[in-house]
Amino acid sequence: MIFDAPTFTFVQEHLPNDLPPCALPQPNPLPSFWTANFSSPLTDAGKDEPLPEEVDIVVIGSGLTGVSTVARLVQGLMEEEGDGVIAEGKTVKIVVLEARQFCSGATGRNGGHLTPAPVYHFGSIAKLSSVDNARRSVMLEDRAAAWVIHTCKAEGWVEDVDLVQGGCVHFFKDANSEALVRAGVEVAKKAGVDVSSYEWISGDEALKRYGATTHSAVKVPGNNIYPLKFVTKLFTKTQSQASASGGKVSLNLFTSTPVTEVRDSPEGTRVLTTRGAISTKYVLHATNAYASHLLPSLAVGPSRIVPTRGQVISVVPTSTSTNPHWTSAFSASEAFEYYFQRPNSGPIILGGGRAFAGDTNFEFGQSDDGSLNGDVGEKLREYLKEQFPKWFEGGIGDQLEASAGKVEREWTGIMAYRPSGEPIVGRVFVDGEAQKGQFISAGYTGHGMTRAPACAEIVAGMMMHDILGKKEPYMIPAWFPTHYLATAEDSLSVVKGTEKKGWSCLIS
């Protein structure tokens, strides 16, 4: 999902604050385009293997956050030496636990966009925190996207993961929505952010170029990718590095292993799963929308993470006359739409429509990705005809012969929304006290592809700092937004009626 200033404001004003902790992931999610069209060799890895009784690091979640963090940890453990757990020359054992199949959460169910977009709502971030943190937000998303692109190019994965660098066009429905984004871009420009690549497009020009009916648009640098293929490649590479580390580090993946509780014990931390328990020194909560299942305090208050269901369809143009042959990605704010056309004029992957979700209130609090919202599905089928009558005047339907485009697949995925619109990264604290060895990176508010890799770099750095026994404080780099780290004040500001032991969580 691409955030602009109006969307940012809407989330702040409407995100519920009275929901219970999230349930475990739905055991039978709908197949997404990504999972249905690519059989990852890691899909059921470790499903039938016995769990180890004791390890050094447990990562809960095998999506982009978990796998990116593991990649950083393995690289760091191979390169560094210190006075921590590796001082005795022992193997550092890392396991990744996934409740369902590999990468079956938001990363394997999203819209495939890799477009940094905080400049769209730069002014909103500056007002929420500071101009400096707004600038850092831009640097973080640019850094995350650049890392993914560099990794693909350096490893020769560009074609394998369907990386397309075609830019992203954001449509404005009226002059006001354009003015709000222009104001944010101007604040960013004055703060030293380079916006020279932004191209403002009139409504007439948008119609000529894209066949779009719109007030105006702006085109920014952006990319598309096959997320499941990228995460599969990254984990496979990292596991090979661990195997070749000369015994410094080992890495194992266990799918179909839901974690039910993380419990302190005299020996360290116990991670309880439906398949048994594991003792560990460190835990990373890379569970995003499901974070409050294991950390109930994240269900309420200013630090809350609200599961929010997104719905996506893949549309096959029915003839050459209805195939737009787009190479750019697109987004719009009216109903949170985001979409792009797959390489070689393939299917169009279209998400959004949540503004028409009816009784489910924009799908806030919905964590079931095994079902669909009919109202949202109807809006998605109407959208292309409304925005692009040149290409889709015949409409979108479920029958190949009856429309300009056929819906070949429809699915949902669960995002993690926060009132600030920003993630939580760092140590886990409960009632103001650090939970020894526990870390988190979650709450990307629908924009994890260009946040998770850089947040993973930070949380891996914090964990490495501890693992290596460093005595000096961990230094936050100049590109990381400090407001991603929750405060002690937030931990004390829980909703009335929930002030009970273990329910005032902060992250730092």
Please, could you describe this protein's structure?
- By secondary structure, the chain is an alpha/beta fold.
- It is 29% helix and 22% strand.
- The chain is built from 13 helices and 19 strands.
- The strands form 3 sheets. The protein has a 9-stranded mixed beta sheet with strand order 4-5-3-12-13-14-11-16-15.
- A hairpin with a 2-residue loop joins strand 7 and strand 8.
Core attributes:
508 residues, alpha/beta, 7-stranded mixed sheet, 19 strands, globular, disordered C terminus
Task: Characterize this entry briefly.
The protein is of the alpha/beta class. It has 13 helices and 19 strands. The strands form 3 sheets. The chain has a 9-stranded mixed sheet with strand order 4-5-3-12-13-14-11-16-15. Strands 6-2-1-10-18-17-19 form a 7-stranded mixed sheet.
Write the layout of secondary structure elements.
Layout: H1 5-14, H2 33-36, E1 57-60, H3 64-79, E2 92-97, H4 122-128, H5 131-155, E3 168-172, H6 175-190, E4 199-202, H7 203-210, E5 216-220, H8 227-243, E6 249-254, E7 259-265, E8 268-273, E9 276-280, E10 282-285, H9 291-294, E11 306-317, E12 329-332, E13 337-341, E14 348-351, H10 374-387, H11 389-392, E15 396-397, E16 405-417, E17 424-430, E18 433-442, H12 452-467, H13 488-492, E19 505-507
Parallel strand pairs: 1-2, 1-10, 2-6, 3-12, 10-18, 15-16
Antiparallel strand pairs: 3-5, 4-5, 7-8, 8-9, 11-14, 11-16, 12-13, 13-14, 17-18, 17-19
